[in-house]
Structure formats: C-alpha cells, structure tokens
Here is the input.
Amino acid sequence: MKRESITTVNRRGTDSVKWGLYGDDVLPLWVADMDFQSPAAVIDALQERVAHGVFGYPLHPQELRELVVSRMQERYGWKISPKDMIFIPGVVPGFNLTCQLLTKLGESLLIQPPVYPPILNAAEKAGVRNIRAELVRQPDGSYTVDFDALEAAIEADTRCLIFCNPHNPVGKVYTRTELERIADICLKHKLTIISDEIHSDLVFKGSQHIPIASLSDEVAKNTVTLIAPSKTFNIAGLSCALMICTNHELLKKIENASHGLLGDVNVLGLTAAIAAYRDGGDWLAQTMQVLKGNLDYLSNFIQKSLPEIKMHKPDATYLAWLDCRELALEEGPYKFFLKKAKVALNFGDDFGEGGQGFVRLNFGCSRELLSEALERMEKAVRER
Ligand SMILES: Cc1ncc(COP(=O)(O)O)c(C=O)c1O
Here is the structure.
C-alpha cells in the first residue's frame, strides 16, 4: 500500500459550515464532513484542472462511468453498465427529485427513523405523507428492523421507500437477509426503493456493504441507488454525486426532470471524482484505519469516563449515535454540550422518532480534537 499521510489542517476562516457556524470557542463535531485533507491525487488533479484556466460546461466523462462500473464490480460483484448512471450535484437533490416524480400530491412514502434529516423531510418537500417504520433499538444499542411493522405501515398509496444503507445516524450496515426481506416487501407492495448508499465506502472490518440493487435484476429494476465520492474522499463541497438505475425508463424520466432544476455537476467535482475513484484507494484504506483508531478511542473513553452515555460502535461511517437519556439533562444533550462544554454535536430530535435524548458525534477529525472535546464533555457532566 502506498503510504499516504492523513493530514488535518486548520479549517477556521475557510467558509466551512462545520467550523464557521459556531463561535471560535466551540469544537465542531457535527456536520458530516471530515477534517482530513483529500487524497494527494485529488488535490493534484484539481490543481492541474485549475491551471488550465477555463471552466465551461462539462461533458460527463466516459472515464468516470467506467470507473464506477469497475468499482461496483470489484467491491460488490454488482454488474452494471456505463449507461446505468447519471451524474447529479448531490444525493439529497437526487432523492428529493425522485420522490417528487414517483408520488402524486397527498400520496405517501416510507422511511425508517431515526434517520438523516433530509430523508425525514423529503415527504414534506414532495407534498406527500411520511409513513414511518421506526428502527428498533436493541439493549446493546444496535438497531434492527421490525419487518412486520414495516409491512403493516405501508398504505395503498405508498409509492416508495427511502432507504439508507449504511444508515445515518445509527451506523447500521444491513445484512443480505435483511436486504432481501426489505426488497421483497417493496416488490410485493410496488414500492420503488430509493437507496441512499453515500456512506458505503466507509465500512469497518467485520461488515460488508451490499447494494440492495445487486440482489437480483428484478430488485435492480425497482431501485434507484445514490452514491457519491463526497463523504469518502472529503469532497462534499465539490458537488458531484451519482444515481444508478438499470430501469432506463425511470432513469430517463429522472434525468429529463433534472434538467434546469438540479443544475449540472461542478466541473471540478468531476475531476475530483475521477482522481478519487482511480487513485484514492490507499488514502481511503489509511483513512479507515485512522477512523477505526478514533472510534476505539471514543468507545473506550465513553465506557470509562462517561458511562451514563450508551454507544454501540457503528458498522460504518464516522458518525457515532450517542444515547444520553440516562444523563436526564433538562435542556437535552445537544444544548447542554454546546453551552456547558462548547462542543457542537448534531441534535438527536432532528432525526425524528427515536432521536430524543440522543446526539450524533462526528469522529472524522484529529485525535487531539476528539480527545479535547470528550474531556470537555466529561467535565461538563461532572460539574452539572
Ligand atoms: C445519508 C446521507 N445522504 C446524503 C448526504 C448528503 O448528500 P449530498 O451532499 O450529496 O446531497 C449525507 C450527508 O451527510 C448523508 O449522510
């Protein structure tokens, strides 16, 4: 493996939402981007592209299509063709647009809270009802699906499921058996699956991501899969994501609807995506080691020094879902840690049912930052 250095740099004053939203005295462990510099190959490719000096409208490069085809084959044994994808500026606009096309006003869509807030809010944007089949929290803090409840929740006018795998915020990677049951339920009730798999590259050893569309041709035709290099290679600000769908009629419909509405992919985003998918493998493997080290550190710290907080190690993502209910904080853990520890986390309530009393912590940062934030949190809890 090529030795990459996984480097953090000062992000204050760089118009980063993570670092700029709160005051300089606050340590930001919230919004889902990492503090690591992107792979050297990405930075070099961008510098070369910038040096060219012309930034007109882009074509969507065949090389990127081919890279995605090989990536899906190598990582998941999923055989797709370069024609099975379109490039879009973001996963969120991708699923919002798809929901709007698949539903009519007043109909419904299905989600599994607690879940990433834009998924929670997609129904409202589409003018439809949100049907919620809550994930079930187990005593060890892991989450399972109550398949009977999921199926029972579906109504005659429910048109699609917005699925999130790996799941944000609970960090769950679905097993093949779980995916098969979900896919079967969706086929039986004619629900299109919109599968947000943006975190699929960030899976820890011991778990294996399976794209739900890879289960069978029939499931693939019933699924719109959304992926992006953005979380993986820390290039979220470059606005480049992908929608994969082997049902070309549906894909064409979405592509047509996107014109003039979504905006095109950023020309630098395409350059970065190619470099990341082609040359970012070693960087990613090393970043996963750094994340694993941070995760172990976080988990040990919580067990020893903040035992009232319960955390199940995520199978994937750099996001930890912290159950702070035992602390019984009057103002809730988000406000408490922001005010008393000067640590910004994500507010659990924003993730819907099952989020009350929880916060989400982003450990995609330097160990120093993580340990200082945890020490501040511990002190605030002890002094309360
Ligand atoms: C599950 C999930 N989907 C989508 C996104 C954002 O996607 P994009 O920036 O491509 O719209 C995030 C970012 O945190 C996420 O966690």
Remarks:
- Residues 32, 90-92, 116, 164, 168, 196, 198, 228, 230, 236, 241 surround pyridoxal-5'-phosphate (CB under 6 Å).
- The chain has a mean pLDDT of 97.
